[in-house]
Each structure stands twice: as C-alpha cells, then as structure tokens.
Design goal:
This protein has 8 helices and 12 strands. With 283 residues, it is an alpha/beta fold.
Length: 283
C-alpha cells in the first residue's frame, strides 16, 4: 500500500505493453497498429514482436511514429528453451536496444531475461496461465519485474487470461513482483483482442525513459475486462458464448501460423510432441 502511485508527481498515461505486428505473427504493419491505438486514446505503445529466427529476430523500430502526445517503447517477446513442462519461454522485454543480440543456442529463459534487464529493459512474464508456467519457473527468473496478470488474447483463445494466482503463490513464498495487464493484440480475430487490457503509468512527462523507470518501480495501475461487445461481462471478461461463437474454430490457419512460427523451432528434435501440441491447439 505504501507504493501506490496516486500521489506521485505528474499524471497517468494509458498504454499497452504486449502487441504484435507483421514483423512477426500479427496481421497489421507497425504503422497501422500504432495508429489504431492512437485513435483509441492511448498515450503509448510497445510493439513486442516475437524475437525468433523465423521472423528475423525483430526489434520493431517505432521511433519515427512518436509525436508530442504519443510515444512508443521498443521491445520484443523473447523466447528460449525450455520451461519445466518443456515449453519455450515467453518473456516480455520493453525498453530493449535495437542491437539486442539473438539468444545463444544454450541460453535459458532466465539468462535471456537477465540479459534483457541488463540492457535496461522492463521484464515481464507473459501470459503464464496460457502455457502453464510453473511457480518454480517464475521464481527462477531473477530479473523479472512483473507478471502479466491479465492477457486479453489468451482470455479469448482459451479462457486463461488471468494470472493473479501466480503473484499470490510467489508472494506467499517471499517473492514480490509487480503486475501489469496487456492486450497481446495480433489483430487476427473479429473483433480483435485489442483495447481490452492496459496499464496507466504515472509519470511527470510522456517520455520512454520516464515510462520505463515508472514501470520498473511499479507506478502503474491495471485495467481490463470491461468489453463493450456482446457475450462479455465482468472484470475478468469471461465469455459465456461457446468457443465456436468466438471464432476459434475458423482460425485454424492462424493457429498453424503461430505454432509453426514460434513453437516448432523449439521442437525440431521432438516432432511427435510438436505434432501433439498442434493437434491439441486445433482441437
């Protein structure tokens, strides 16, 4: 309670920390994604394309899209093998330099997160419930600043958007991490899972440097789940319609693209397990 940001100098600025473009597996180019968030009244955006060889290890440069009343943060969604359950890591790093080096073949998720933090980035554990990140895995990431406690994309895809439980488990064991909510927008579905979950960061000036310092200090509040469209209600945006009505069954091509884009590269030596994952996601 002593770290609440409400009495800090400045004001709250609204932004999204987890977003994808055509630089990885998103449907819109970076310019269109930034424009979409600007039109919705956001103050800042981080494009966090998948930092994978299959996409050319992109750090999407959005500096030219900044303006006096809107700024961007450079970042990526980092991946490395493997978690306790054999999945590739998903780590949000916001504030990366453009020359951030690709991971070494033997670099682990915690090591990659530490290297990102050393470069000045805010480090978040992305959608832990979506891929069943264990508490042991989360504890191993010493460089983590925060947990992505709500992910709008995974809430739509498989009802695993909420991860407050992980904050509670870590806190019970003496590890305190901050929290943030995010869209994980790809603009692939109709309607898109965008403008649903966001942070409001309190800073004196709208600059990347001020935003990053405030995020690392936990000077933000999270908003999510109040969707102005049929079938959604409550603060957790739980959808009461069947999955078919949410468009999941007509997105097999999208799922296949994602899987081949960032899952299969980590399973080249385990094709049977990769095939099983594909089938489970497309079921």
């Amino acid at each position: 309670m002593y770290q609440l940001p409400f009495d800090r100098p400045g004001r709250f600025y609204r932004g999204n920390l987890h977003t994808h473009s055509t630089r990885s597996d998103g449907a819109l180019p970076p310019e269109a994604v930034v424009e979409a968030y600007q039109q919705q009244g956001y103050d800042f955006l981080a494009l966090t394309d998948h930092f994978l060889d299959s996409f050319g290890f992109p750090i999407t440069d959005t500096r030219a899209l900044r303006s006096p009343d809107f700024t961007t943060l450079l970042g990526a969604e980092l991946h490395a093998p493997r978690t306790e359950l054999g999945m590739p890591w998903h780590i949000i790093a916001v504030g990366l330099p453009l020359d951030f080096a690709p991971p070494a073949a033997d670099e682990t998720g915690p090591a990659l997160a530490s290297r990102a933090a050393a470069s000045g980035a805010f480090v978040g554990l992305a959608h832990p419930a979506w891929y069943t990140l264990s508490p042991n895995d989360a504890r191993s990431v010493a460089a983590a600043d925060a947990i992505e406690v709500y992910n709008a994309g995974t809430a739509q895809w498989n009802d695993r958007g909420d991860a407050w439980y992980l904050c509670d488990l870590l806190l019970a064991g003496g590890r305190r991490l901050n929290a943030y909510a995010a869209d994980d927008a790809h603009f692939l579905s109709t309607p898109p899972t965008a403008f649903v979950a966001w942070v409001q960061v309190r800073v004196a000036s709208l600059t990347p440097e001020a935003l990053l310092a405030a995020l690392k200090a936990g000077r933000q509040r999270n908003h999510y789940g109040l969707l102005a469209r049929p079938g959604h209600h409550s603060r957790r945006s739980t959808c009461t319609r069947p999955l078919e009505a949410r468009g999941r069954c007509d997105q097999r091509d999208v799922l296949a693209r994602r899987i081949h884009g960032f899952l299969l590269p980590h399973y080249r030596d385990r094709p049977a397990q990769a095939a099983s994952l594909v089938e489970s996601y497309l079921a």
